[in-house]
Amino acid sequence: MSPLKIKKGTSKHSAYDLRSNYADTQETHTLAVIVDNEAGVLARVIGLFSGRGYNIDSLTVAEIDHQGHRSRITVVTTGTPQVIEQIKSQLSRMVPVYEVHDLTVEGPSVERELALLKVVGEGEKRVEALRLADIFRANVVDSTLESFVFEITGPPEKIDAFAELMRPLGLEEVARTGVAALSRGGSGSLGVASDKVTADVTGGANA
Amino acid sequence: MSRQMTGAQMVVKALKDQGVDTIFGYPGGAVLPIYDEIFQQNDIRHVLVRHEQAAVHAAEGYARSTGKPGVALVTSGPGATNAVTGLTDALMDSIPIVVLTGQVPTFMIGNDAFQEADTVGITRPCTKHNWLVKETEKLPGVIHQAFHVATKGRPGPVLVDIPKDVQFASARYTSPEKAPVGHYQPRTKGDATAIAELARMMETAERPILYTGGGVINSGDEATRLLRELAGATNFPVTSTLMGLGAYPASGDNWLGMLGMHGLYEANMAMHGCDLMICVGARFDDRITGRVDAFSPNSKKAHIDIDPSSINKVIHVDVPIIGDVASVLGDLLEVWKERGAKTNEEGIARWWSQISEWKKTRCLDYAPSKETIKPQHAVERLEALTRDHPKRYITTEVGQHQMWAAQYLHFNEPNRWMTSGGLGTMGYGFPASVGVQMAHPDALVINVAGEASWLMNMQEMGTVAQYRLPVKQFILNNERLGMVRQWQELLHGERYSHSWSESLPDFVKLAESFGIKGLTVSDPADLDDAIREMLDHDGPVIFDCLVEKHENCFPMIPSGAPHNEMLLGNASTKDAIGSKGAVLV
Ligand SMILES: Cc1cc2nc3c(=O)[nH]c(=O)nc-3n(C[C@H](O)[C@H](O)[C@H](O)COP(=O)(O)OP(=O)(O)OC[C@H]3O[C@@H](n4cnc5c(N)ncnc54)[C@H](O)[C@@H]3O)c2cc1C
Ligand SMILES: Cc1ncc(C[n+]2csc(CCOP(=O)(O)OP(=O)(O)O)c2C)c(N)n1
């Protein structure tokens, strides 16, 4: 695990920063939460957000280490800096949680989402849909004479943009996976190499 | 050593291995195998309460008065749902308890089986953690982990849900030493840089204050000792929240009394005017801060807390120190002494003379009466007549009486004061007194109660009669939901909507119907004798103290007001709370 580059006043370590005043501006953060893949763990995380009135913009979860039974939850949330700090502290004190990383502030990261879009149409519209799909590097994964199912991967904004363009061309259905995110560069085996998962990273497994 | 045994046997064995000597419970179909095992052994005492809520509060009382985790055992469905209030109470007040619930057999879960409830679902938000155990071989490990989680870091309630077939099936037992340790290992040692920073601030502060809370009690005896040493060595004044009373002795030289909504004038003024606030194991609750943007506006704030989520939650602090109170205070004292053990003596002397000015307000004074017993007077007399008892433990219900108990009773030791602070659960005190008395058979255990709260768990008279628990139920009977009535007087134009205690029982007859001693007193002249009679009686007593009906509890910081705007006893209360404050609770 590489040293985490943490901006002032943003992670749990920010406890040691002197933030003069809480801004009431809203920020959107992407958090990676490594948890024991035990029964109810997702309900716990979701319950925390609903119970304390935090927002969930997107949430994805899957087991990433089958031997260690660890899952990675990627959650995109919006709130004031104070709320974001609370969310991270509240998450990291949960018993099944190993680590909480704020990918938005811990250096550069990549975010990707996969979406499937069904576009139904004929003639000019159909051709236009295919042309745009090509520009967006969307693949055709199913087609009939009057429909396509496109598969597109990218940052959420790209998918938003693509879906917007497809709307007048006969967009019928959208399925999105939600965001998966990783830090850039050669660092990090978050949650996979169990011997490297130390309490220090998040400042302790916490109360 | 591991050998085959049934799940039910494992439960009893695991409890023994965890050092449990007492459990509070109530049987039912889904826990019968465990009850069968309890029947066949003598190491663990089982106390049959009369309601599952009481089992959990009793476990809380046991835990808070011993520093050890309390244990409750209840059946599935209604047994588990009845435990929910107690679990939430323990979560809010950071009390370590382990609640075991029965569940319908695994193959029936999800079928709306008889007495099935989604116990782990229902209790997920009101436990620190919970488990549904579906395989017998995992049961001992989970129970051991449950004790670990309940007691480590910020303590709290945990729940283990055990289906009936898991109790019947056999597997190998795992001892605590061999049980898989989870990765849950909260950090206890504070950051050295932050501690050094605080030590430096202590040297120059002119108006310092130690704002201490329940975390000192949670941390244990060493934390209490170090807090006393710190206050003594620095001559800093000390105040405490409701939850922290007794950590610093009320008889100590530096004691300012409780702070907060019903705290002492001098404590709140000192909090408002200080230049260095050292928060030790307290959580800036809204009963403390009042109006957040006017809270102690000119101070630097340090916060020692084991739970990072307590830090910067309500009040932004300058020096946060995540760690256990005992560990951090130990390090802090060491660093501060290494640096020469300096304080700004001159400044602090001026500060103390300012504080003694505030003390002259005599904010706990009240108008005495020869005709009716003033509730404050009753508590003062209780204090006078019990203060020398070497083993006095106090529990309370919730309301005005609770605040008067906090104001007029003096605690010189930790773990002697059990009250429901965060959730404010009426009905807490009676069962909690049962738990305390079970833990300390020869102690004097008094529940200072309001009649309305007391009625909420009065079925526990059966328990105290059965086990001959000599708890004293000191009921300040104002025939009102006093605290509610006070708020209606201050906030709702004296429209006393449903804040009467109508149709009260005759408490003496009620007690006698359970074979318990009942006492009633209404004349101030008889009060001392009646209290003595209560204390001298070797057994439980229901003490019905008829007090002034419309007394208000002061001082009071009205909701939405800053600390330096307190209502005092002699102040007019009309329109004290503005319309903005009225929406706050
Ligand atoms: C009717 C009513 C009126 C009330 N009025 C008042 C009032 O006037 N004044 C008042 O003070 N309260 C009052 N309360 C109680 C109030 O609601 C809160 O329960 C109380 O103030 C919280 O106390 P605390 O801050 O000490 O926190 P606690 O709830 O005791 O929390 C302890 C804190 O310490 C931390 N901690 C735990 N263990 C450790 C450890 N080992 N090391 C370090 N940190 C640790 C925890 O993380 C937590 O942040 C009232 C309650 C009621 C019902
Ligand atoms: C279970 C529960 N229900 C309601 C309340 C709201 N409440 C707080 S104090 C109070 C009145 C308590 O009356 P009593 O026990 O007689 O005490 P007093 O205030 O008169 O001393 C009420 C209803 C509560 N705290 N708990």
Automatic annotation (TrEMBL), chain B:
Its EC number is 2.2.1.6. It is an enzyme of class 2 (transferase). SUPFAM superfamilies: DHS-like NAD/FAD-binding domain, Thiamin diphosphate-binding fold (THDP-binding). It catalyses: 2 pyruvate + H(+) = (2S)-2-acetolactate + CO2. GO terms for cellular component: acetolactate synthase complex. It comes from the Bacteria. GO terms for molecular function: acetolactate synthase activity; flavin adenine dinucleotide binding; magnesium ion binding; thiamine pyrophosphate binding. Residues 195-331 form the Thiamine pyrophosphate enzyme central domain. Keywords: Amino-acid biosynthesis, Branched-chain amino acid biosynthesis, Magnesium, Metal-binding, Thiamine pyrophosphate, Transferase. Its cofactor is thiamine diphosphate; Mg(2+). Pathway: Amino-acid biosynthesis; L-isoleucine biosynthesis; L-isoleucine from 2-oxobutanoate: step 1/4; Amino-acid biosynthesis; L-valine biosynthesis; L-valine from pyruvate: step 1/4. InterPro entries: Acetolactate_synth_lsu (IPR012846), AHAS_TPP (IPR039368), DHS-like_NAD/FAD-binding_dom (IPR029035), THDP-binding (IPR029061), Thiamin_PyroP_enz_cen_dom (IPR012000), Thiamin_PyroP_enz_TPP-bd_dom (IPR012001), TPP_enz (IPR045229), TPP_enzyme_TPP-bd (IPR011766). It holds the Pfam family TPP_enzyme_M. One of its GO terms (biological process) is isoleucine biosynthetic process. Residues 398-545 form the Thiamine pyrophosphate enzyme TPP-binding domain. The keyword Phosphoprotein does not apply. Binds 1 thiamine pyrophosphate per subunit. Binds 1 Mg(2+) ion per subunit. PANTHER family: ACETOLACTATE SYNTHASE CATALYTIC SUBUNIT, MITOCHONDRIAL (PTHR18968:SF13), THIAMINE PYROPHOSPHATE ENZYMES (PTHR18968). Belongs to the TPP enzyme family. This is Acetolactate synthase.
